[in-house]
Design a protein that fits this description.
Number of domains: 3
CATH class of the largest domain: Mainly Beta
CATH architecture of the largest domain: 7 Propeller
Structural class: mainly beta
Distance between the termini: 29 Å
CATH topology of the largest domain: Methylamine Dehydrogenase, Chain H
Number of helices: 0
Radius of gyration: 25 Å
Oligomer: single chain
């Protein structure tokens, strides 16, 4: 999955599990063309499922037991929608069953149920989603071949389904639990759960890893090869930040980026360059800066800095993504790679300013947002030079703007709403073009379809889409050149959300204008504003940040207050209630810096510790995969 929400698959395809409408094996990534705006993926034995941004669920591939959830057992080589399932936020797939987590914390499962893995109290297969009984407050799911586990918001865990190998962690090896059973001996300080084929592991808050279940190949990591029915600490790993479970092997990621794997090694899936089985962790060879880990049936993949993907192990079906079908016992580069740096990100592209003040961009270029002009509209997975002598860069939905060393603003990309500010509309500009009438600019910020800038004189100028008043001009349409925002003077910085704008004044006051459907203007109402209104109850503000439809502000005493949309808990007040005036972020003080993502927020305290809250579907909170309604510490562990 890439920034645009597209899905790419490779490997075996006998049941259409690549989702590209064929049944041909592919040794390199192929695009699932009918899927866009995907926010979560789940890969099963021979099927796949995805959650789109609108909360709908789509599945494809084998459908022996109804694991596609569309009411029948017919395999599908392209994605089909799971009917009746809305507001999904996460998806996980087992061997022949699938489960989805909804926004309200409820869990819904479908497919094979011979061992009770659907958690509905029966052993009958289900062709459509059924709710897991006696379970609420779930924040993440993990599925094995025939068992299911859930992590709850309070840090506790529960499992159900097949327990023959002890994978339910309840002290028994001969049970099939048809409903969830709490793992009481595991405690409530768990940050993440992971499952292999018949084993389960938990990452705890202290960085330790605990595993249980089938251990024939040493995949539980306790040094033996005896099945374990109670959680047991894995020896030799500490500071664990993530777990990746394969069918018969396990891997752990440390905060320093080191990786260790253990269990079956028949195809080199442990990445140590050797073979055989290892009942204790062994370091992956030549991989010191991993950022994510995932285990397949007999292979493993890890993400590394700069967006590169490294895979190793079995490759008969091309599952390593390197263009061959040759197994590899050490990490090998996959063809599907990107470039990641310290950057500002737009909808589908990113840009960075290097130490020589050159602006580089990469990613989607369908509107010219990379600014290189060379091959118009050709995407680039490596940085291309857009502009020299740049001091600041900002990325909007499909356009980019930069402040030059002389205080001028240059923009490029999509311009249908006038967001480039060059006096024209309806065109795409593949080269940087000067924004007319602006000089002495000290700060610039690009929204989805509009742009705002602050000058050294403290004036605020905006241009582009004005459908909700985000340009700050009442009774006027879109603006193709900068217009001064009335009533906005003595300002020092500006931030833009999807369709709103806010400025910070030298005296610490904040004023906002534009879309206000979620209360993001902070004026106590939800009506759009075409001119700046002062945010109620705030003074002494030092900095602010904007999400898609929420805002956060840091004051002079180190306290943080947020307001606006709160569907994902991005306001940090312990609720999901949107706020039209600022509320304090719970239990957070001595803050020195803040930052907002589209649906999450983060803060750094004076002692250097970091806290995040809100949406965590892609791990953006930095502490496992549980979303949070209040600030939670970003994991920082010693080296393994």
């Amino acid at each position: 999955m890439n920034k645009a929400g597209n899905v790419w698959c490779w490997g075996s395809n006998h049941f259409g599990q690549l989702g590209n409408g064929t049944y041909s094996v592919s040794h390199s990534p192929v695009l699932v063309e009918s899927l866009t705006d995907v926010v979560a993926l789940g890969g099963g034995g021979v099927h796949g499922c995805a959650v789109r941004g609108d909360g709908s669920v789509w599945c494809w591939g084998a459908n022996f037991s109804g694991e596609l959830g569309n009411g029948n057992t017919v395999e599908q080589s392209t994605p089909v929608q799971v009917p009746g399932l809305l507001d999904a936020v996460a998806i996980e797939a087992g061997f022949q069953h699938t489960c989805a987590l909804k926004l309200d914390g409820s869990t819904w499962c479908w497919g094979g149920n011979s061992c009770g893995q659907l958690g509905d109290g029966t052993k009958s297969d289900q062709l459509s989603p059924v709710q897991v009984v006696e379970l609420s407050g779930v924040v993440s799911l993990s599925l094995g071949n025939s068992h299911t586990c859930a992590l709850k918001v309070d840090g506790s865990a529960a499992c159900w389904g097949d327990g023959y190998h002890g994978q339910l962690g309840n002290g028994s090896n001969a049970t099939k639990n048809l409903v969830p059973v709490a793992l009481e001996t595991l405690g409530s300080d768990n940050l993440a759960l992971g499952t292999g084929g018949y084993h389960t592991c938990a990452v705890k808050a202290d960085g330790s890893l605990w595993c249980w279940g089938m251990n024939r190949y040493g995949q539980v990591g306790d040094g033996s090869q005896l099945d374990l029915n109670l959680p047991t600490a894995v020896e030799g790993v500490s500071g664990v930040s993530a777990f990746g479970g394969g069918s018969k092997h396990s891997c752990a990621l440390g905060s320093s980026g080191s990786l260790a794997c253990w269990g079956l090694n028949s195809f080199g899936q442990l990445g140590d360059g050797q073979g055989g089985a290892y009942p204790v962790p062994a370091e992956v060879e030549g991989l010191q800066e991993a950022m994510g880990i995932s285990g397949g049936q007999e292979y493993t993949c890890a993400a590394t800095p700069y967006g590169k993907l490294r895979c190793w192990g079995e490759n008969l079906k091309g599952q390593l993504g390197d263009g061959t079908n040759i197994p590899n016992k050490v990490p090998t580069p996959a063809i599907l790679e990107g470039v990641v740096a310290d950057f500002d990100a737009g909808a589908e592209h990113a840009c960075a300013v290097d130490i020589e003040d050159d602006v580089y961009c990469w990613g989607n270029d369908d509107s010219g947002q990379l600014g290189d002009g060379g091959l118009w509209g050709v995407d680039s997975s490596v940085p291309v030079l857009a502009m020299e002598s740049g001091l600041q860069v900002t990325c909007g939905g499909d356009h980019t703007c930069a402040v030059a060393a002389d205080g001028k603003v240059w923009c490029w990309g999509r311009n249908y709403d006038g967001q480039l500010g060059n006096g024209g509309v309806g065109t795409k500009t593949y080269f940087p073009s000067k924004t007319v009438g602006l000089s002495g600019v000290t700060d610039v910020s690009a929204g989805s379809k509009h742009t705002c800038a602050v000058t050294s004189a403290g004036q605020v100028w905006c241009w582009g889409n004005n459908s909700a008043g985000q340009v700050g001009v009442q009774d006027a349409g879109d603006q193709d050149s900068p217009v001064e925002v009335p009533g906005a003077d003595n300002k020092v910085s500006v931030v833009t959300g999807d369709s709103h704008s806010c400025v910070l004044a030298a005296d610490g006051d904040i004023a906002c204008w534009g879309s206000n459907a979620s209360g993001q203007l902070g004026d106590g109402g939800t009506g759009d504003g075409f001119e700046p209104v002062v945010v109620a109850g705030l003074d002494g503000v030092q900095s602010l940040c904007a999400g898609a439809e929420h805002m956060c502000a840091l004051d002079e005493v180190g306290a943080v207050r947020c307001w606006g949309a709160n569907k994902w808990g991005q306001l940090g007040d312990g609720t999901l209630q949107q706020r039209d005036t600022p509320v304090y972020v719970g239990a957070l003080d001595s803050v020195t810096a803040i930052g907002c993502g589209s649906y999450h927020s983060c803060a750094v305290k004076a002692n250097g510790s970091a806290f995040c809250w809100g949406d965590n579907r892609k791990g953006q909170l930095g502490f496992g995969n549980a979303w949070a309604l209040e600030p939670q510490p970003v994991i920082s562990f010693p080296e393994m």
